[in-house]
């Protein structure tokens, strides 16, 4: 099982119980449903070595961004064919590396309670990588998804979460985005959704744009109601006051 690097919390941090209504839930995958941080970091180091990226062994992966955008960041001189080839290499590496892939606390139990037409996954991973990770983790796959290779602009652009809401036949304002990374939080807010930030991969201060913060999905309770879902969780102090 992969161990996420501990994010130190201030000892005086307070929480209050929050109950909210929503019609749809839009989940990020990595860092929210599954932990793949070990594989991501190992594979990008291998990729950097293969393509002779200067100081590649110390490269800090910008979590929450699409692999294609990272390839372009690391090798700005690549033409489109080289970018596509580089993307395929990192995709193959990450699909093969599942040794310490882990389901994050509460994720499986929560997804099993949700109506199939009320949630989807909006991930920066490619569709092939997303399906590989969900299969390895034993998590359900929603009928429709938004992956990084299905959008023109990745997070923090609002396009992915706008498209995710459209899949459910909803407006972004009628959905809650569930995210762990600053780029994803920013994408959800820019799309017009409320955002539940999940702690674990980033410091709370990095998720200051989130509407609420929760320690994990293990702390989130869902009840299906006539017009959608009722969500309850302990909101970590420091998030914005919910509307």
Sheet with the most strands? 5 strands, parallel
SSE pattern: EEEHHHEHEHHEHEEEE
Stretches where pLDDT falls below 50 for ≥5 residues?
A: 1-12, 239-243
- The appropriate CATH architecture of the largest domain is 3-Layer(aba) Sandwich
Share of residues in strands: 15-25%
What Rg is obtained from the alpha carbons, in whole angstroms?
A: 18 Å
What does the overall shape look like?
A: globular
Order of strands, widest sheet? 5-2-6-7-8
Q: Return the average pLDDT rounded to an integer.
A: 90
CATH superfamily of the largest domain: HAD superfamily/HAD-like
CATH topology of the largest domain: Rossmann fold
Gap from first CA to last CA: 38 Å
* Structural class estimated from helices and strands: alpha/beta
Number of strands: 10
Count up the helices: 7
Counted up, domains total 2
Highest-level CATH class of the largest domain: Alpha Beta
**Helix content class:** 25-40%
